Amino acid sequence: MELSRCETAADVLTLLEEFSGEDAWQTFFTGVLDATGLSYGRFAARCGLSKNTVKRWSIQGGAPRSRDTYLKVGFGAAMTPQAVSAMLSQYGGYCGLNPRDPFDACCIFCLRKQAAGERRYDYAAAEDLYRKVMEEEPTEGRSTLTTTTLMAHLTAVDTETEFRSFMQEFGPELTGRKQKLERYLEEYLTAHRLAATRAGGGSLHSLGLPAQVEKQLSLLKCHGIVPRRRSLTALGLHLNMTLEELDVLLQYAGMDPLRPRDQLECVLIYALQQLALTHPELALGNATALLAVTRDAATRRRCTELAQEYWQAGYRSEGEDVESVAAYVRCVLEQLELEEAEELLRLL
Question: What pTM value is reported for the model?
Answer without folding.
Answer: 0.66
